[in-house]
UniProtKB/TrEMBL annotation, chains A, B:
Sample GO molecular function, one term: coenzyme F420-0:L-glutamate ligase activity
The UniProt record lists the keyword Ribosomal protein: no
Protein name per its UniProtKB record: Coenzyme F420-0:L-glutamate ligase
UniProt keyword terms in alphabetical order: GTP-binding, Ligase, Magnesium, Manganese, Metal-binding, Nucleotide-binding, Potassium
Record-annotated Coenzyme F420:L-glutamate ligase-like domain positions: 11-220
A Pfam family per the record: F420_ligase
Organismal lineage: Archaea, Methanobacteriati, Methanobacteriota, Stenosarchaea group, Methanomicrobia
Signal among keywords: no
EC number annotated for this UniProt entry: 6.3.2.31
NCBIfam families referenced in this protein's UniProt entry, alphabetically: F420_cofE (TIGR01916), PRK13293.1 (NF009809)
Length: 246, 246
């Protein structure tokens, strides 16, 4: 059975309080085992994880960094408020968030929202994904897997790709440890970050601009086993250690 | 029209001289606009980009690095032979290849090949993708787009994902510069590395072990415009600059 990838079309502009899960369920007929990828931006708008820029008071630290990044100090303050560790201050802020995710501007954004408003990443994206999964089960009776996505840069390669911010009904990593290749050798590549591979393709379908497709459904994907240890911690990550010495 | 993702099943173990394109065309009915993703490992085996480890003579440099990485010095030599710049020597070799691709062990591998044999990345992956595209047009009369993939690590996030090594019939980056979001703001995220997003999902379908699916076809994907400047050069890449100071 071929895999199908279904963009969820026709969603309106989302605002706090909108019944986003209901709106998605009205536009797609879920089947058991489907994977729903949802843009974090839209999840955050529906759930009020947004801020008004002119209600933010910038700290001295935010003012200092804003001079280097040429951004509004209040926008920088919003980023710092989401940040547990600043890895790089300029040319752009690269920081770790409370979930262990490392991203440019801590995933804070002012695209696809009204002027003067800021979108934050969901504070508990794993809980968000689990909540969506439960709601969909309640509304449709179907057991759907969920990934919350964001668009994110990376090193060595230009351009952004979609990554997984939260997930439910699957593990982030497909673990091949102990598995064998076609010739019986024990595998060297053992941890495939499948949740990011699915999120990336969903992001390709969504696009970055005014496509209006914040949700994508994957049908007939395999299941896998593994673990959820997607984020390197500071000691494990060679590249991060090098950056911090800078 | 929904996107379909079709694994190419039933391919045998591939050896130098095998008519890989013919073998793929026998197993899938291509349509105009399809995207074929092909694992670089299989392309390299078919085209003889493999080496016998015991025919390699390790240099003093290879011996020195092999002591740190706990690998066979001849395997390290094969990696150095594919490398134009060593970024990191241990705990694993991270290096740039002639195409500008940065990868662990320069993409050199001894999985999914006979004992004592080594698989290299295709030396001209852009040419490889264009050649495949032409051959498929000749065999089937269809205009198919092609991506050559490899499995690759990344920073900040654990686990490997599929990335694009070569491509034809598309640009690597989808360029959103000058485009607007749903509220008319000029976009901040402007360069989406769509070729990696597609390669990543193909890699998810392939898996890393004995699945025997080195080729995946994507049907009904959009087309995009942009550029092919996928690899940061040394000066552009903040993270690489930090690593090199190490
Ligand atoms: N229908 C609808 N689409 C939206 C809305 N906000 C964003 N999108 C779309 O969702 C996709 C991803 O948007 P983006 O801002 O890049 O989200 P992010 O990657 O999570 O930061 C794009 O297709 C946007 O056009 C919204 O409120 N309603
Ligand atoms: N049928 C077939 N499948 C292969 C062969 N070599 C590798 N594969 C499959 O191709 C996929 C990717 O293999 P992998 O070694 O990870 O390739 P890489 O990611 O390009 O290094 C997996 O499903 C393998 O089982 C081969 O010679 N024949
Ligand atoms: Mn975002
Ligand atoms: Mn996005
Ligand atoms: Mn490989
Ligand atoms: Mn692989």
């Amino acid at each position: 059975m071929h895999i199908q990838v279904i963009p969820v079309e026709g969603l309106p502009i989302i605002h706090p309080g909108d019944l986003l899960t209901e709106m998605i369920c009205e536009r797609v007929t879920f089947e058991d085992g489907d994977i729903l990828c949802l843009a974090s931006s839209v999840y955050s708008k529906a759930n009020g994880y947004i801020r008004k820029q002119d209600e933010i008071v910038a700290s001295a630290e935010a003012v200092r960094i804003a001079q280097k990044t040429h951004e509004d100090p209040r926008f920088v303050q919003a980023i710092l408020d989401e940040t547990t560790d600043v890895i790089l201050e300029d040319p752009f802020i690269l920081s770790e968030t409370v979930t262990g995710h490392v991203g440019v501007r801590a995933g804070v954004d002012h695209s696809n929202i009204e002027d003067g408003m800021i979108i934050l990443l969901p504070p508990d994206p794993m809980g968000a994904a689990a909540g969506l999964q439960n709601e969909i089960a309640r509304i449709t009776g179907k057991e759907v897997r969920v990934i919350i996505t964001d668009t994110c840069g990376r090193s060595f390669r230009r351009g952004q790709t979609g990554v997984a911010i939260g997930w439910s009904g699957m593990t982030a990593i497909r673990d091949f440890r102990g598995d064998h290749d076609l010739f019986g050798h024990v595998l060297e590549i053992t941890e495939e970050a499948v949740v990011d591979e699915v999120a990336g393709f969903a992001n390709f379908i969504m696009g970055e601009s005014n496509n209006g497709v914040p949700a994508v459904v994957f049908r007939n994907c395999t299941r896998w086993t593994g673990h959820d240890n997607l984020h390197f911690n500071r000691e494990e990550d060679i590249i991060r250690k090098a950056l911090c010495k800078k």
